[in-house]
């Protein structure tokens, strides 16, 4: 009887804890809705108000839609507004949507530093907590990837506390720096827990395909509008992050073909691929060719190992690619224009022209300054977030008028992690990269070709994420953090429900 009484008491305590959590979550959601209502009411947007009120309800009822919303907004909406050189007023109109802008900056609510992206993450976190508690399903993903993600998020929070706690530093910049890691960890958690059906999985892939396809259409339109400009060099037509997204699109399309995934998704992706490649090359980003080439190579190598029946075909493709390159590179080595962009990207690394040499020298000087900041700061624990970078060690061009965040976030994010989070952060970063590649590689063993294709894409995307971080702030772009975290979470969700990979998904060991 004593045991029975104890069990009842435990149940009562658990029920009280559950009600307390639900009550607290309800209050938090009410506050968030009040902020959204106030913001939208101030802008007199009744439709926006209805959306702000409806989304939390929809996300609680069907949480996979929350993941799709985050990924869709990240694929389509720019983090910053921008303009096209020589063509005032021409840009992707989506850069004016204030999804990543604080309510203070976006709709003029003084003192509110949260953005719609922040509020979305907070609401989805409350949805995860309340659904898990009420249904008795609250759990965390368990794998090498989830452990690496958790460590990176923890170290980012410690860097925030360390940087702000030192005093005299920029709290706003510190909060800006911690955001991408919160976004990456949150979307990984949401995707790993909320994507529980094949229908939801397909919806995520459709979101990425249509999002990048839409950006490609925007890019091609802008490219057509800028073709008559005589600026000496082709202007960038879209945001930096499209280099990663367009590379991901190409790898996903290729994987759908190699792994035999028939259907409208593959048909749509294939139809949009020429536009995506055109927009990618027209965007004049050197890292775009690097990400596309390296990611494709990783995907082909994994496919060669995973699918013996494709090996003869892949050998023929490799020979054909070498022959085409042997003709194309010499022909376009001194070329100009969009078609010559891949050749120019290769040339810039081997024999850069005057413009590329200036860019390369800037990066060399910037890296030297970051190295000195590491040496003169705290090589073991890092400086923390919000600490201004000292660019006085090696002479360098001041570009703060072009990029105000360069005082806190340099281009080389691999060195940046060491500077901010110390040696533990650098080790955790490489463990995350290794875990992402290994998880993707392991997924290619699946007997489910859809899971195998996703694994190959995620491994390739992890390499692309590393290259983007090494060359151009890829770890600190909000959009990339959300999509990359979502991809890792999506892979965990599929692997954990794959009978042929169940043991590996649980333990994440070969």
């Amino acid at each position: 009887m004593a045991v029975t009484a104890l069990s009842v008491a435990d149940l009562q305590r658990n029920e009280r804890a559950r009600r307390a959590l639900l009550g607290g979550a309800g209050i938090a959601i009410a506050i968030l809705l009040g902020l959204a209502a106030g913001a939208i009411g101030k802008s007199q947007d009744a439709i926006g108000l209805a959306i702000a009120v409806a989304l939390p309800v929809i996300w609680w009822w069907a949480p996979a839609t929350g993941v799709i919303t985050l990924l869709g907004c990240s694929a389509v909406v720019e983090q910053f507004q921008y303009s096209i050189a020589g063509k005032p007023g021409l840009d992707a109109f989506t850069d004016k949507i204030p999804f990543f802008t604080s309510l203070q900056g976006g709709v003029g609510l003084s003192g509110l530093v949260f953005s719609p992206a922040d509020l979305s993450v907070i609401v989805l976190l409350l949805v995860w907590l309340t659904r898990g508690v009420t249904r008795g399903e609250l759990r965390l993903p368990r794998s090498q990837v989830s452990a690496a993600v958790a460590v990176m998020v923890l170290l980012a929070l410690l860097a925030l506390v360390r940087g702000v706690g030192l005093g005299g530093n920029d709290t706003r910049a510190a909060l800006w720096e911690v955001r991408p890691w919160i976004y990456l960890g949150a979307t990984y958690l949401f995707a790993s827990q909320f994507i529980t059906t094949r229908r939801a999985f397909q919806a995520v892939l459709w979101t990425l395909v249509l999002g990048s396809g839409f950006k490609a259409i925007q890019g091609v339109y802008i490219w057509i509008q800028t073709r008559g400009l005589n600026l000496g060099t082709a202007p960038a037509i879209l945001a930096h992050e499209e280099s990663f997204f367009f590379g991901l699109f190409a790898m996903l399309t290729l994987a759908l073909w190699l792994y035999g995934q028939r259907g409208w998704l593959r048909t749509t992706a294939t139809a949009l691929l020429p536009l995506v490649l055109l927009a990618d090359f027209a965007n004049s980003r050197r890292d775009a060719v690097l990400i596309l080439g390296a990611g494709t190579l990783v995907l082909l190598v994994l496919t060669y190992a995973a699918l013996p029946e494709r090996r003869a075909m892949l050998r023929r493709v490799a020979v054909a690619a070498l022959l085409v390159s042997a003709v194309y590179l010499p022909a376009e080595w001194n070329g100009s224009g969009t078609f010559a962009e891949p050749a120019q990207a290769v040339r810039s690394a081997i024999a850069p022209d005057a413009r590329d040499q200036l860019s390369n020298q800037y990066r060399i000087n910037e890296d030297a300054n970051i190295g000195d900041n590491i040496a003169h700061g705290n090589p073991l624990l890092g400086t923390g977030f919000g600490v201004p970078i000292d660019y006085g060690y090696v002479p360098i061009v001041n570009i703060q008028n072009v990029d105000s965040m360069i005082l806190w976030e340099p281009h080389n994010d691999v060195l940046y992690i060491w500077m901010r989070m110390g040696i533990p952060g650098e080790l955790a970063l490489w463990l995350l990269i290794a875990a992402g590649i290994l998880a993707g590689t392991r997924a290619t063993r699946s007997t489910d070709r859809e899971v195998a294709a996703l694994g190959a894409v995620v491994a390739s995307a992890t390499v692309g994420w590393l290259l983007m971080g090494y060359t151009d702030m890829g770890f600190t772009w909000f959009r990339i953090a959300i999509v990359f975290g979502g991809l890792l979470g999506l892979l965990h969700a599929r692997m954990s429900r794959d009978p042929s990979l169940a043991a590996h998904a649980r333990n994440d060991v070969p």
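The chain is about 70% helix and 0% strand. The CA atoms of residues 32 and 119 lie 7 Å apart.
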